[in-house]
């Protein structure tokens, strides 16, 4: 269930609801105005006055004792009271209460709280009493009072008192004392007192009168008059003298202080000192003075009873405090939190607590009047803003103080005695659109922004540190408690403090203690210094920091900030290119630049375009800003002696400088989150590394390589099987140089982190009989030849004269030749009887290579043949078989014996060997190229004599781009072919 805003639970008094301008004077009662009927209704109307007055313990005791004494009871009573409490401590309010009681007598019995006073006094009714009032700030002895209003003129305090008590007859009794300005003695004073009637005489603001009349001698006579009047009151049964002496100590001269001490000693000796308000009762006084309460909701002890909605709010806040007892000040009574919140509702306890704990010791602070003045302005503003929808706070908390209101600020500065704090408040808290706390709230996440947490925290710090006065600091536990509210994430308070610390100009921080003061802090120095940092120094620092972050790692030395393609080497090795931050991903031309420099090397086409990996900044704005900040801190450090920084500021400077340098480094990591490289589709592909920070890897280079390894774009090495699977079909022998180059020229191949790993791959392939590593002699033989043997990777070299061949080809050169076929030539012979013919036998091994043969055994099915293959035909005609045998291998030929002229019909001719040359020309559609190779060319690829000549013609109406032409040339070079193409 949502908590109700305070302004829907309690109602401020009418003038506060209407937002009328308020002045501290409205909370300062003028007894003269009350007596003359000129005071505001809250003070003039006695019933209304008592409804809004909380009878504190001391006020109850004073009023009861006065009533008792006026009723003629002298036991446990005093006739003289000295209200010598702090300026603004509620003294005149107490005098007004006594005046209303005495003036109205029994009529006051029915007023709110009077029954409590009567019970305390032990009497049934307030006696009707003669009253006299003297207010030092109002009475002027030079001009006097009266004379032009139908009343006789009075020029002395005793003349004024005499006239109020006994009219013109009383004034006549002291006429001589008036003329000679001499205080009357006790005998005269007793003649002034009304017969058979109680008498109450009230003095207020005496020091003002004393100070003004010191030179005329009246101040000394006033002392004598008070002395005589006090002695008289002590001797009477139903007379009371109540005196309020002090003025503000800040306004006293040395003579004032001397007279003050003299009067105080007199009254303390003859009477009783009184303190009106106690700290524990301040909250109830304020509630009764600022809000309208149903008299039926006031308890027997005079305290306001809260509604169910108010109690729910108090309980919810108290539960938060209990849950976070370890994070709030130890002095707060957590176990009685509900009672504390209920006692101050609708204010948060810290609102009143800060005045009691800290502000009351300020020289200018007027305890009751000062608090009431500030809170009245506060309540008026908060009430109007609440109904306008700006705030829905369940309590009026310290952080919601309307410091953006000039009238309220002026009242605060008046109490602090330091109007120069205006700049600190408006710059750091509120009062301007660009005040730091306001700006931070607007930029924060929803939970903090809606709670106005930065402004609340800053306002709490201001009140708790009270402008550098007594205990000029706000602790973190105090801040937490002051902004405490249900559902508050306490971690957000620390976040707000950190943001304020890094932004505010007048906020000082030392050991988690915060203070607003007049002295600009390091942030202000930073802001001023940042404006003077030159752009070229910023760019230089940014580039320097980027180079530090991209330190050489994993054998890769980055290429920094190229502007032309020929600044990037074209080599078969993985190359990391770090673009300058100006070429960021925010610039649409950046990818075009990368595309161009990937494919070009100066005026030529780049061969090893797949070798390039690009590191690209997301934006350069944050980098420049962090560099500017670091440079500014460094400048301040270099001038710290001239700036006269104190030890605390020097420590903060060291911390801020270290943090700025760390932030700049982290900004490089965060900014260079984009990697670009040539994809398998031969277009530039961008990889977003996500949220990057320095703890993710030892170096930025390592981070990039780790990600590319995960994606399969970079490999530590490849297996020998990879080479076999990706063997170029046109190659019988593949040079090691071409093998190496393929990994950095073709995007179909993975990029190798270490080019030397190819040597390891070849060595492993040789030992596992997957490939052979060979050299090629001038006669075409392989020398050296490594296959199925252990070979060190260091023995492998990248060269156009060294090759790898497939296992199938290698085996042809390592198996012992074995006779598998005998070929006899000629195959068919026509011969006459008795004639001779020599036959030859040629041996072939298992790979159809010629092999020397010996010990051939010849035989014939007709005629004779010797061991040299010489055949002699016999006389019998016919077809006979010549057989040559070596071991188990044999071959055959045929011989026909016939006489000339009587030739038998020739035997059917042997199968023709067919044509020796085949050629074809024609157009092959691109989609059938692979089928053409498989079904046509592959039949002849295993033998000798296949020669392929290709004539390629490409015609495109839209034209062939320079890029495609260069790619074609590169592809031809990769295949070991000429890259000369004709264009027109």
From TrEMBL:
Coiled coil: 636-670
Organism, scientific name: Desulfofundulus luciae
Region Disordered: start-end pairs: 899-921
Origin: domain of life: Bacteria
Keyword Coiled coil attached: yes
Upper classification of the organism: Bacteria, Bacillati, Bacillota, Clostridia, Eubacteriales
InterPro entries (alphabetical): DUF499
Pro residues bias locations: 903-914
Key words of the record: Coiled coil
Designated name of the protein: AAA family ATPase
